[in-house]
């Protein structure tokens, strides 16, 4: 499990990184925290002639906060979010999610931008950022463009970013002060990828509710029917649970393939428990 | 019964003394391990060493048409034909009916599993060696693979080794009148159980480093092995180097659990090649190789029928155990070890007079099967103990009470089982009573009544009991038909002139704490401080010949040898001390690094000074020097039987299929404990592996014979959060057959956990009409069963 030979370059700034990506024949691959790329290289599942390390680019490590959003540089690590070293846009949801990613050793190096760019359908950030309605800022030869979350994740390991573009930052809208959330992840053992993830955000002040099912299909599934059932719901009731079950079935029917019976049980549980948590039921 | 070399005469310990047998002495070896100063195979730093990558088969079954070498392969890539005149491994049983097969060190004509080594590639680094391996082009003529048990049993499947079919061996243990039992039975229960194929997952993988020592004119083979001496013996035969010119060294070994208790093909190939090269070569197994190409474990399908009376007293058992042993028979255990073990011990700790067993070993295009902590016992225990719970459910009794009623009673000891095992001592039912009290059965039942049915999470309680044959002696290995008989162990105990003690033992310490516990045995006999005793092991050049560490044998066998040698050496120490003190030898005792006679004493170092440097101070006729070498064999050639009952409370989440362990208790008896702290660590570690067996670990293959779990992303092992702290009660019935009454216990923790956990999960889900009889119980299996039961109820 040792990688093929490859060239390694450390980009000093974003233009430097973009220059490396501009030459399509060079076959360069960006490495942020390296927590997925390095194992793939070691297993020789992926071979790239050139690896461009962006983890030391100062601009990508920046984080800022405005009245209505938090902006995180692509190379902010899970560990920094977990430790509160980045502004929190969503009443603690991002800190909670970050703390549940893999193991601390992975969180020390793994980055939110790297995770979003890799777009592993089982990854926590892919699900969470879709639920939060994040916007992804890519920069390429033609300058910057903004991609909304629903347009970002096109398939497993497949995003809207082109090979010449670099994800430079992520803008996460702030939730209202009284917004609540639920996040329920099923893993077979601690630190593993989720088999199923439910992310629920209820923001009555903005008349907003979002429900995303992650890890269970090729891309995270926005459960709009479940979100509609939850919008404005003041508390958890049996009637709400019944309505939610119907809505979830409606949402799951829109998935790209039918769920096997065991998967259907698990994903329904996941969404129901995330919703219950968002309504204060543990 | 084979004659033991001498009566043990080393009686059980009445009251433990500090530092001696029975004391919780902190481990001598931990100082270097905790400081990161262990020296494992990958840490060896021998100038000029080149690294090895094996080219391994990417296909499960194929003929090799041709192998095209890349430029620069000369002197860097080696095939079987480049290794000289070496023999293939042929691991057979002497038992009539066993079908043998050859396992070449490197595949030359045919590959029979994914991961089978084909070529050795050398590089300055492992990466360079892997680059080279990647350049080699092998033209395979693919053959249809035989993958699962059902295919292997099908006479129409292609034969792997030129036999009429793929059945390697069938054993038929048993005795008594099963038909009569069936006729007399009020209830008959039949189930089929499956235990998945597992990887062993030692923390350190396997590894070999070898070179020819020009000064000593010997081949030096470092290997991460549990049994250096016997590896030397078999290597010598296979590669044609005489044993006195072959040294095998096991450095620090980072866990074995059985996977390093075999002759490895890589050992043979590397040793053979190193003899022909002028520089050292090394292979360090990586995790992917370990998960694919190391000997794997389990993969059993057992059909078991029990006939019982209306109270659940088991009158007779019928069993068929089929084990998928993979592509080759590995030395020395043979492919048939697992199936023979399962079929041979299926009556468990119970007094069952009628049994008809059948153990079937089949071969397939999967990695060869080898020993893993517990060997066939986790499967046998799982099968029998699951069925006991189903009998209990059928006759409407508490499962633990049914166990108590069926167990061999203390007054029946020693008890010969229907398959010929000799249970030596103990009160089996007491282990059930104690663990039932620890887990508090009424409280768990009350909690179940309150909680189950009110939400998605259901509580379940499970028990499992077993006996563990340990320190198998001469009779056992002969009965099993092994080509070598591992019936004894050896140790040298020697003082140095400054009064310190060195123990040289042929076992290998890879986590068992033997550098401490053997020192405790010497302390018991010689009054030395165990922290000050050096235990050298794992090296054919530093100790007399012996068998190694496996089968829960080292404390009984090597402990017995150290005890005997120390006792004999102590007699000489006392004679010299008596001479120095001018008292009678019989009046001398050894304690606190001194020889004491009443109010008078002399330091041991005065005794050793006389023995080594001042023969003029020795009694008349006494030889100089102070060292002693002895062997030890237990009085019973079938070993000593430890036993235990485990009890576990689980919470099953019917919404996710996840199982949480809420409480885990063990009441066990391993005879006299040398170091209860180490015993508890072994129980805890064994249970951890049993939890993996029950809930997580599985090495599935696709229909083409490709292993699907090749990294830790796919092959899940329990981590600290998944393993509860096990509550442990010690029963301590000394074995009448061993030194000090010690019984082995290294494997026990792993044996009962799968059975106990599956019983607990089934207890939780039984009211829903769910029954699970296959490990591991994954969320998929649990949720599918729940769905099926719900569908069934809706009909």
TrEMBL record, chain A:
Record keyword Plastid present: no
Ranges for domain FAD-binding PCMH-type: 1-177
Source domain of life: Bacteria
PANTHER family in UniProt: XANTHINE DEHYDROGENASE SUBUNIT C-RELATED (PTHR42659:SF2)
UniProt cross-references to SMART domains, sorted A to Z: CO_deh_flav_C
UniProtKB keywords: FAD, Flavoprotein, Oxidoreductase
Designated name of the protein: FAD-binding PCMH-type domain-containing protein
Molecular function, one GO term: oxidoreductase activity
């Amino acid at each position: 499990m040792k990688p093929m030979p490859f060239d390694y370059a450390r980009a000093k700034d974003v233009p430097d990184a973009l220059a490396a990506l501009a030459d399509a024949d060079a076959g360069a691959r960006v490495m942020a925290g390296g927590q997925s790329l390095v194992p793939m290289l070691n297993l020789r599942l992926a071979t790239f002639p050139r690896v461009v390390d962006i983890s030391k680019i100062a601009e990508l490590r920046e984080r800022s906060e405005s009245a209505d959003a938090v902006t995180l540089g692509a190379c902010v690590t899970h560990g920094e979010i977990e430790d509160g070293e980045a502004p929190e846009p969503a009443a603690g949801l991002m800190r909670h999610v970050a703390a549940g990613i893999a193991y601390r050793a992975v969180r020390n190096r793994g980055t939110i931008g790297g995770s979003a760019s890799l777009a592993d359908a089982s990854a926590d950030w892919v699900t969470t950022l879709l639920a939060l309605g994040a916007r992804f800022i890519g920069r390429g030869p033609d300058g910057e463009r903004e991609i909304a979350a629903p347009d970002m994740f096109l398939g497993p390991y497949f995003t809207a970013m082109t090979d010449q573009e670099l994800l430079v930052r992520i803008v996460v809208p702030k939730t209202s002060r009284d917004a609540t959330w639920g996040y329920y992840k099923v893993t077979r053992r601690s630190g593993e990828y989720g088999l199923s993830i439910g992310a629920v955000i209820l923001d009555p002040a903005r008349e907003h509710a979002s429900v995303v099912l992650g890890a269970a299909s090729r891309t995270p599934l926005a459960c709009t029917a479940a979100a509609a059932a939850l919008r404005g719901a003041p508390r958890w009731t049996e009637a709400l649970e019944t309505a939610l079950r119907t809505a979830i079935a409606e949402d799951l029917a829109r998935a790209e393939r039918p769920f096997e019976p065991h998967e259907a049980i698990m994903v329904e549980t996941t969404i129901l428990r995330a919703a219950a948590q968002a309504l204060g039921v543990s | 019964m084979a004659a033991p070399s001498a009566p043990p005469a080393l009686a059980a310990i009445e009251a433990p003394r500090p530092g001696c047998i029975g004391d919780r002495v902190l481990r001598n070896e931990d100082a270097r391990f905790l400081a990161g100063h262990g020296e494992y195979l990958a840490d060896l730093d021998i100038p000029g060493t080149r690294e090895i990558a094996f080219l391994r088969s990417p296909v499960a079954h194929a003929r090799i048409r041709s192998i095209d070498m890349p430029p620069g392969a000369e002197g860097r890539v080696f095939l079987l034909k480049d290794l000289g005149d070496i023999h293939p491994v042929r691991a057979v049983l002497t038992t009539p009916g066993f079908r043998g097969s050859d396992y070449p060190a490197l595949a030359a004509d045919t590959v029979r599993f994914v991961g089978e080594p084909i070529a050795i590639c050398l590089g300055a680094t492992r990466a360079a060696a892997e680059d080279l391996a990647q350049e080699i082009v092998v033209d395979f003529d693919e053959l249809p693979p035989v993958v699962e048990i059902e295919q292997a049993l099908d006479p129409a499947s292609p034969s792997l080794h030129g036999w009429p079919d793929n059945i390697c061996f069938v054993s038929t243990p048993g005795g008594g009148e099963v038909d009569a039992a069936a006729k007399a039975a009020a209830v008959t229960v039949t189930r089929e159980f499956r235990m998945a194929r597992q990887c062993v997952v030692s923390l350190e993988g396997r590894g070999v480093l070898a070179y020819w020592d020009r000064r000593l004119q010997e081949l030096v083979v470092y290997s991460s092995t549990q049994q250096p001496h016997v590896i030397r013996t078999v290597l010598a035969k296979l590669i044609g180097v005489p044993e006195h010119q072959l040294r095998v060294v096991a450095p620090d070994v980072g866990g074995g659990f059985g996977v390093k208790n075999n002759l490895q093909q890589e050992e043979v190939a590397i040793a053979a090649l190193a003899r022909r090269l002028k520089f050292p070569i090394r292979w360090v197994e990586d995790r992917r190789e370990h998960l694919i190409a190391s000997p794997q474990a389990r993969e059993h399908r057992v059909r078991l029928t029990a006939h019982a009376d209306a109270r659940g007293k088991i009158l007779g058992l019928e069993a068929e155990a089929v084990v998928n042993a993979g592509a080759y028979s590995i030395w020395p255990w043979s492919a048939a070890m697992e199936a023979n073990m399962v079929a041979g011990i299926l009556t468990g700790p119970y007094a069952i007079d009628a049994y008809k067993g059948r153990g079937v070993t089949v071969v397939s295009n999967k990695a060869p099967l080898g020993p893993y902590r517990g060997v066939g016992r986790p499967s046998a225990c799982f099968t029998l103990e699951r069925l006991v719970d189903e009998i209990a459910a059928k006759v409407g009794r508490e499962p633990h009470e049914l166990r108590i009623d069926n167990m061999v009673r203390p007054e029946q000891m020693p008890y010969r089982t229907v398959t010929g095992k000799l249970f030596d001592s103990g009160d089996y039912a007491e282990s059930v009573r104690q663990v039932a009290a620890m887990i508090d059965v009424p409280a768990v039942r009350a909690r179940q009544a309150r909680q189950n049915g009110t939400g998605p999470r259901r509580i379940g309680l499970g028990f499992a009991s077993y006996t563990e044959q340990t320190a198998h002696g001469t009779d056992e290995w002969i009965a099993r038909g092994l080509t070598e008989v591992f019936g004894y162990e050896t140790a040298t105990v020697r003082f140095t002139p400054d009064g310190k003690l060195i123990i040289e033992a042929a076992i290998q310490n890879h986590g068992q704490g033997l550098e401490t516990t053997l020192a405790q045995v010497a302390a018991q006999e010689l009054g030395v401080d165990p922290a000050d005793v050096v235990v050298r092991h794992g090296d054919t050049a530093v100790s007399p010949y012996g068998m190694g560490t496996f089968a829960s044998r080292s404390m009984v066998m090597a402990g017995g040898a150290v005890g005997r040698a120390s006792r004999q050496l102590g007699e000489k120490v006392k004679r010299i001390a008596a001479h120095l003190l001018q008292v009678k030898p019989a009046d001398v005792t050894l304690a606190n690094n001194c020889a004491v006679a009443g109010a008078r004493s002399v330091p041991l170092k005065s005794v050793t000074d006389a023995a080594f440097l001042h023969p003029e101070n020795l009694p008349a006729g006494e030889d100089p020097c102070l060292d002693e070498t002895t062997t030890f064999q237990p009085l019973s050639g079938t070993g000593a039987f430890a036993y235990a009952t485990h009890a576990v409370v689980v919470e099953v989440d019917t919404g996710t299929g996840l199982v949480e362990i809420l409480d885990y208790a063990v009441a066990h008896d391993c005879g006299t404990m040398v170091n209860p702290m180490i015993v508890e660590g072994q129980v805890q570690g064994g249970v951890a592996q049993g939890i993996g067996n029950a809930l997580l670990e599985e090495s599935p293959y696709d229909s083409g014979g490709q292993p699907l779990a090749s990294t830790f992303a796919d092959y899940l092992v329990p981590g600290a959060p998944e393993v509860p702290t096990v509550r442990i009660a010690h029963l301590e019935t000394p074995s009448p057959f061993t030194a000090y009454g010690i019984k082995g216990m290294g494997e026990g923790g792993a044996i009962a956990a799968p059975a106990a956990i599956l019983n607990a999960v089934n207890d939780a889900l039984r009211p829903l009409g769910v029954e699970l009889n296959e490990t591991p119980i994954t969320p998929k299996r649990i949720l599918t069963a729940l769905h099926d039961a719900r569908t069934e109820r809706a009909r």
